[in-house]
Amino acid sequence: MKNEEQQSEDKALRSKEFPSTQTETSETTKQLWTERKKDFLKEIDLIQAVVTRMANTSFLIKGWTVTMMTFIFATKCEPKALPLVFVPILLFWVLDAYFLQQERLYRKLYQWVVENRMFSENYLFSLSTARVQDQNKPIIRVMFSTTLGVFYGGALLLVITYISYINYFNS
Fold it and tell me: CA of 98: how far to CAs of 33, 49, 102, 126, 160, in Å?
C-alpha cells in the first residue's frame, strides 16, 4: 500500500501535477525539493568521481614518466639513443595535458550543476561536458600551464643536461 502511494506521489512530482489545495501544494513542493536535493547530491557525487579518476590518471602518468626517466638514466643507454627519450616524455606530456583539460571541464560541469540543478532538470545526470565546452582551453595552453610546464619542462631540461653531460665525457 505504501509503495503504491509512493509511486503515485513520484509520478505526480515528475509530471508536475500539483494538487489544488494550499496544504497539499506545500507538501508536494517540499517533496519536490527533497527529491531534487537527492538528485543534486547524486549528480555531484558522480561528477566528483570522474574528477578524482582524472586526477589519479594524471598522477599515474607522472609516475610513469619519472619511472621511465629513472630507468634510462640508471641503464646508461647509448648516447646516440638518448634523444629517443624525448618521444615518450612528449607523449606523456600531451596525454597528461589531455587529462588535465578533461578534469577542468568536469570541474566546470560540477560548478554548472551547483548553480543550476535546484532550479532546472535540464541535463539531469548527464556527464557530457558539451554545455561547458565553450570554456575549454586548447591543449597546448594546458600543456604549458604552471603545473605541467614545470614538471615536464624540468624533465626535458634534466634529459638535455644528462645528454650533454654524457656527450661531453664520451667525446
Answer: 37, 18, 6, 21, 25
Q: Hey, what's the cell of 42?
A: 547524486
The pLDDT profile of the chain, 171 residues, written as one tens digit per residue, is 445 554 554 454 444 444 445 555 678 878 877 888 888 888 889 999 999 999 999 999 999 999 988 887 787 767 677 777 888 899 999 999 999 999 999 999 898 888 887 777 776 777 788 888 888 899 999 999 999 999 999 999 988 888 888 878 776
Q: How many other CB atoms are there within 10 angstroms of residue 8's CB atom?
A: 10
Return the residue matching grid coordinates 614545470: 150
In this prediction the pTM is 0.74
Residue 41 CA: distances (Å) to CA of 38, 48, 107, 118, 125 = 5, 10, 15, 10, 11
Q: How many CB atoms lie within 10 A of CB 32?
A: 16
